[in-house]
Amino acid sequence: HFDWLNYLKKNWAIVFCSILIGACTHLFWDSFTSGNGYFVTRNPVLETQLTIFNTPFYVYKIIKHLSSLIGSIILFILLIRLPKQHPQHPKSDHSNTYYWLFHTLLALIIFLFQIALYSHSGSLNGLIKKIVSSGLFSILLISIGYRLSAKVVTK
C-alpha cells in the first residue's frame, strides 16, 4: 500500500516540480496540436489536410491523436512492468481484478450516459474526450467510494 501523503511530505519539491513541468510541457504540446495553438496558427503545414480512408484530417489533429496513442502505449507498458505486489491475505488475490472490472463497468455506464445525454457530432475528438473522461470519472468515484467505505469500516 503506497502512502501518498507521506511521500508528498518528504518529496514536496520533486512533486511540485513534476506538476509544473507536466503543466508547461502540456501547454507547449497543445500549441502544436490545437486548432488555435500558437504554432498551428503560424505554421501552414500543421493546418494542411490529409485524407486518410476518404476522411480529411488536419496534420495537427493527426499529431494530437498519434501522440496520445503513443503515450498511452508507453504508459500501458510501464504499468504492466511495475513490480508485482503479492497480497498478504490470500482473500485479496482478486481485489485488483474486481477493482478493474468494476472500473470498466462504471466507465462504460458513464460513457453511455454521456452519449445519451449530450449531443455529439460524431467527431473522433469528441469520442476520445468522452472515453477518457468516463474512465477518469470512474476512477474518481471508485476512489471516493473506497475512502468512504474505509471510514465506515474503521468506526
Describe the structure.
Helices cover 71% and strands 5% of the residues. The protein has 155 residues and is mainly α. A hairpin with a 2-residue loop joins strand 1 and strand 2. Helix 5 crosses helix 6.
Ends: how far apart? 21 Å
Specify the structural class. Answer: mainly alpha
The gross shape turns out to be globular
Radius of gyration: 20 Å
What is the element string, with H for helices and E for strands?
A: HHHEEHHH
- Strand % is 5-15%
What share of residues is helical? Answer: over 70%
Indicate the mean pLDDT.
Answer: 86
Strand order of the largest sheet: 1-2
For the biggest sheet, the summary is:
2 strands, antiparallel
**Total number of beta strands:** 2
Considering the chains and any ligands shown, give keywords for the structure.
155 residues; 71% helix; globular
Offer a concise description of the structure:
The protein has 155 residues and is mainly alpha-helical. It is built from 6 helices and 2 strands; from the N terminus they run αααββααα.
Secondary structure layout plus pairing:
Layout: H1 4-10, H2 12-33, H3 38-42, E1 49-52, E2 55-58, H4 59-80, H5 95-117, H6 124-154
Antiparallel strand pairs: 1-2
Helix pairs in contact: 5-6
